[in-house]
Design goal:
The chain is an alpha/beta fold and about 450 residues long. The protein folds into two domains: about 220 residues, Rossmann fold; about 180 residues, 3-Layer(aba) Sandwich (Rossmann fold), CATH 3.40.50.10490. A five-stranded parallel beta sheet has the order 6-5-7-8-9, with helices on both faces. Helix 1 runs antiparallel to helix 4 and helix 11 crosses helix 12. The longest helix has 20 residues. It is globular and about 75 Å long. The protein starts with 6 loop residues before the first helix and ends with a helix.
Length: about 450
């Protein structure tokens, strides 16, 4: 049964036609002083709390119930459990979908075709750990006896976007590690500009490709090798400066399992550039954080399940409000590559128009994902988002109002007093910040 034929989808459709015009954000907050507590989720981890505030969405309790009912009736829980059980839910290739195994820090058995995959996962992690130690300690040396100071990751798609995003996000943890560079574009300018800043004697190249058939990656790898040999003048020196990562098990240093999609591969051997940059101990912490969220997704009831809540809000907006783009606007500069990374995770995963049954879908499977760091966006495109068409193109008053609101909130962040001067969501966010700031 297709999504739009599901009885609960039809209920949502009818409710939207009859009631969506009455969903006024200001009125909903004024009418319910507890809206923030009802429509937010606090996830308590060993390393601090994660707050999901979804109260500023055009929903009420009736809409949420219908969304959860729809999730159950179309089999979200069943599909989730099949994935964690190692069933071959990637039916087009006949494969399991087990990126969760890569970060399974509990080391519980995960079975595929009657075989536990965890021993192989742990073997690769051990090999990554040993290699990282040798490079970061200076034991691994280049052809001229010098230690490695720079690592160039050559890949594209999942072999570039994830590692690049994470190394940028975790730069504060990179002390003692080599500089990391990323080359993805087959346009020679990308490689040439990078190599111009490097010394062949102290540079290590990581060639990251699932199959070693990706034209962009192979072309860039050949260019890097040619550049390197201009200095080394010895083909045997290549072994000390080039490492290969792939799902192809032929003569490669590290293998990324075939049951891991490229867009999830940063958790696999493809994440070697991350581990080299921040250290393997910190890479293990990254895996542990992802494992915590995997456990939450696997065990939490739908009503308290953060990934499910966000997914259902996405369905609500794109299919009912026809909101066909989704902006990701991180305000932390370290997260400046997150939108580009998540574009692939969302749009490549959901960018399909043929259903599992082979029929063309008659609904949106996902939005266009885009974004920039939030502060930059405020001075670029926020005005269109906030006010849309038919306004004075030079609306300085709106800009000034934002500054006035910010000036009011700034002093409220300075002490530990409880805040009551805003809507319940803004009050709750300020309180959360003050409670959890370092």
């Amino acid at each position: 049964m297709g999504l739009t034929n599901d009885p609960n989808y039809k209920k949502l459709e009818q409710w939207y036609k009859s009631n969506a015009g009455g969903l006024n954000m200001r009125q909903m907050f004024d009418a319910d002083k507890e809206r923030f507590s009802k429509f937010s989720l606090n996830l308590e981890t060993d390393d601090g709390d994660i707050l999901l505030d979804y109260s500023k969405n055009l929903i009420n309790e009736e809409v949420l119930k219908m969304l959860f009912d729809m999730a159950r009736s179309i089999g979200v829980e069943t599909a989730r459990d099949q994935m964690f059980a190692g069933e071959k839910i990637n039916f087009t290739e006949g494969r399991a979908v087990l990126h969760i195994a890569l970060r399974n820090r509990a080391n519980t058995p995960i079975m595929v075709d009657g075989k536990d995959v965890m021993p192989e996962v742990n073997r690769v992690l051990k090999k990554m750990k040993d290699f990282c130690h040798r490079v970061r300690s200076g034991e691994w040396k280049g052809f001229s006896g010098k230690t490695i100071t720079d690592v160039v990751n050559i890949g594209i798609g999942g072999s570039d976007l994830g590692p690049l995003m994470v190394t940028e996000a975790l730069k504060p943890y990179s002390k003692g590690g080599p500089n990391v560079w990323f080359v993805s574009n087959i346009d020679g300018t990308h490689m040439a500009k990078t190599l111009a800043q490097l010394n062949a004697e102290t540079t290590l190249f990581i060639i990251a490709s699932k199959t070693f058939t990706t034209q962009e990656t192979i072309t860039n790898a050949e260019s890097a090798k040619e550049w390197f040999l201009q200095t080394a003048n010895d083909p045997s020196a290549v072994a000390k400066h080039f490492v290969a990562l792939s799902t192809n098990a032929v003569s490669l240093t590290l293998i990324s399992p075939c049951w891991v999609g490229g867009r999830y591969s940063l958790w696999s051997a493809i994440g070697l550039s991350i581990a080299l940059h921040i250290g393997f101990e910190n890479f293990e912490q990254l895996l542990a954080g992802a494992h915590w969220m995997d456990k939450h997704f696997c065990s939490a009831p739908l009503e308290q399940n953060a990934p499910v809540l966000l997914a259902l809000l996405g369905v609500w907006y794109v299919n009912f409000f026809q909101a066909e783009t989704h902006a990701l606007l991180p305000y932390d500069q370290y997260m400046h590559r997150f939108a580009a990374y998540f574009q692939q995770g969302d749009m490549e995963s959901n960018g399909k128009y043929i259903s599992k049954s082979g029929t063309r879908v008659n609904y949106h499977t996902g939005p266009i994902v885009w974004g920039e760091p939030g502060t930059n966006g405020q001075h670029a495109f926020y005005q269109l988002i906030h006010q849309v068409w038919n306004i004075n193109s030079y609306d300085q008053w709106g800009v000034e109002l934002g500054k006035q609101l910010a000036k009011k909130i700034e002093p409220e962040l300075q002490d530990d007093s409880e805040i009551h001067s805003h809507d319940s969501s803004t009050n709750g966010l300020i309180s959360f910040f003050k409670k959890n700031r370092a």
